[in-house]
Design brief:
Layout: E1 6-14, H1 21-26, E2 32-39, H2 46-52, E3 56-59, H3 65-75, E4 82-87, E5 90-92, H4 94-103, E6 113-124, E7 127-129, E8 137-144, E9 148-150, E10 159-161, E11 164-175, H5 180-201, H6 218-229, H7 237-249, H8 256-304
Parallel strand pairs: 1-2, 1-4, 2-3, 6-11
Antiparallel strand pairs: 4-8, 5-11, 6-7, 6-8, 9-10
Helix pairs in contact: 5-8, 7-8
């Protein structure tokens, strides 16, 4: 049976995702009108597998996730008004496909709707993680491309849509890692990015970013909790408070043994590691400032005594 394709162009970012790209595209090619894979010079079979699914593969060097996503929207030969951004470790659930078919089928979207918001559901070690206050977590991934863009952040990026959005109570599944080794390796990198983001965010606002609002949308409320509440708690101790709140008071223990592993690693180890990275970056900045002060003082001294020898 031939299923009708929807007028949506899907963009998938990849780098060495041979374990994920096939299962990801399995959940996309049956309904998307066209699929673009934007790779960053993978050294494994990612590109080969993507081409087996008839995806249109393009290469672009990685700077940040935000810049790569925005480059894709501006430079790919996209033929549809609507775009959908998916990561290689994500899967479109059957319920989400059914809802999209309704939105772009007989039950047409209202003209003022420019974006669709879905729930993100984390799957860890085969277990859906639904407790601890992390589900449902809403994200806007489908929108009219002329009205949407990714905010310029190194970590925890969201898409911004100029106009009204419609919230769909369906899940976009995130297979958060195929092994603990890969999970910790990725989060090691992401901790560095978030530490830089937290330190830069404390000094200057980000233009065209999701605004933190306690009484705003779910995405704005999440940003408020992260930046205004959690971000203002003392370094290191906030990781303890967050884990206790998440695992004990918000029911994380109900996610079983996989949940125990996930909440400890993500809700405590990762948060503590981010703080350690912040601490290290601050120390480096202080040492750099102190060294710079000494150098500037020596230069001033040299200007006053031009024949002084510099050791």
């Amino acid at each position: 049976m031939i299923t009708k394709q929807l007028p949506i162009s899907v963009i998938v970012l990849t780098y060495n995702e041979e374990a994920n790209i096939g299962p990801c595209l399995d959940t996309i090619v049956g309904w998307a009108h066209e699929v673009f894979v934007v790779d960053s010079n993978s050294t494994d079979r990612t590109v080969e597998i993507a081409k087996q699914y008839k995806a249109k593969v393009f290469q672009h060097p990685f700077e940040t996730y935000s810049r790569k996503r925005n480059w894709a929207q501006l430079n790919l030969p996209i033929t549809n008004e609507w775009v959908c951004h998916i990561d290689a470790d994500e899967r479109v659930s059957p319920a989400m496909v059914d809802e999209l078919r309704m939105c772009f089928g007989d039950t047409a979207l209202a003209p003022q709707i420019r974006g669709l918001v879905v729930r993100r559901l984390i799957v860890f070690e085969g277990r859906q993680i639904k407790h601890g206050g992390i589900y449902p977590s809403y994200t806007c991934r489908i929108f009219k491309r002329q009205f949407g863009r990714c905010e310029d952040r190194e970590y925890d990026q969201h898409f911004l849509v100029d106009g009204d959005t419609l919230r769909l109570e369906v899940d976009l599944l995130e297979i958060t890692a195929t092994s603990l080794f890969l999970w910790t390796a990725r989060h090691n990198q992401w901790a560095q990015l978030e530490a830089r983001q937290l330190l830069s965010g404390s000094r200057e606002p980000h233009p065209r970013a999701v605004q933190p609002k306690l009484l705003g949308t779910p995405i704005e409320r999440r940003r408020w909790l992260r930046e205004r509440l959690y971000g203002n708690l003392p370094l290191f101790s906030r990781a303890f408070f967050y884990f206790v709140s998440r695992y004990l008071f918000r029911g994380g223990f109900l996610d079983g043994t996989p949940g125990l592993i996930y909440h400890v690693l993500h809700g405590f180890w990762f948060r503590f590691y981010v703080d350690a990275c912040c601490y290290e970056l601050r120390k480096r900045e202080e040492r750099g400032y102190a060294q710079g002060s000494v150098t500037r003082a020596a230069e001033r001294q040299k200007q006053r005594h031009p024949f002084m020898r510099m050791e």
